[in-house]
# Entry
Amino acid sequence: MAYSAEKLEEEKVFKDPVHRYIHVKDRVIWDLIGTKEFQRLRRIRQLGTTFLTFHGAEHSRFNHSLGVYEIVRRIVDDVFAGRPEWKEEERLLTLCAALLHDLGHGPFSHSFEKVFDLDHEDFTQAIIMGETEVNKVLTRIHKSFPKRVAEVIAKTSDNKLVISLISSQIDADRMDYLQRDAYFTGVSYGHFDMERILRVMRPQKDQVVIKKSGMHAVEDYIMSRYQMYWQVYFHPVSRGAEVILSKILHRAKYLYKQNYSFKHQPQHFYSFFNDKVTLEDYLKLDESIILYYFQMWQEEEDEILSDLCSRFVNRNLFKFTEFDPAKEYKKLAELNTLFIKAGIDPEYYLVVDSSSDLPYDFYRPGEEGERLPIHLLMKNGELRELSRESEVVDAISGKRRTDHKLYFPVDLLKDDSSKKNIKKQICSLLDI
Ligand code: NI
# Structure
């Protein structure tokens, strides 16, 4: 029997707190889950530093990837199967792309990628196409199969319908992470009627559309996304932890470049510090390794590195205040000067962080990775863009909201053992 058609003798079932069960019948899916590159996702948290704010948020990219696979499996097997617009031969391609869509995420992806100027999407492509166990499994289907999977994930595939199941404004990725992140953080946002949405999804030539009768369930989903962004994903405390994390990596890189002699040599980081990252180095790094270094670096002679690491490990985070960079740049310059006078390096201890989000967009090329708008399928067969039908969605669509915060170590500023007067001035400027 062709490998692509091979089924497991007995269906495998994973217990899952969000979808109850995740079902695997296809041999290839089972084999992909067993690869070391996929297992690595167990050691990368889905929400980075969010566990320092919501202590339940310890779930991994592994959980989420299985969840996205399960949602797509239900769509294709329970809703699309047998419909003339759906080609059954795309089933396995869709399932593999769903399972592997986040394969290239690194530890604490967001901050890590920024510091080292890397992109997890490039690594997803590299893992699928490179000399890896994942590539071996996919190649058993056909030698061109890894490339087809990679193209769906990169959104360059001709198969727009399959792409829209995995990355659009109502895709399996978002439907899984909203519910999963709500579950693990314990917040009451993030819930919506996914069963209903799945039942009213219809395949069309270039995209998945939603029957008009499911509009209110979709409104709920958009609102839950909106709430989750501001209540969880952009939580100022988690962002403050990210600020510290990225400053640690910056400091370690800086010291390495200065030939500083580390007590604990950053072996796993050499290629990152030298901007020569190979796939092998990348795959070796996970969150347990990073946290190991942070733990060890608390003992370094360099005060900035050891202080920042101890802040991260022991959750002694920075405080923050609202900040408007357009109006308050003079104040920032003044604070910078005072920080230097007080002997606190502003490069590491006075940091502006900005977050912004578009809750839903009808069409704006270049934004949001050009995620497709949501189309409703009307009774007469016509398609209508969601914000034209829904007043709720119309009210928030196309509106970008940005939030800026200024972070600083309140404990150092309140410590009046030295430079008391300067620190006093800083505190009054910061209004603390
Ligand atoms: Ni994802």
The first strand starts at residue 7 and ends at 16.
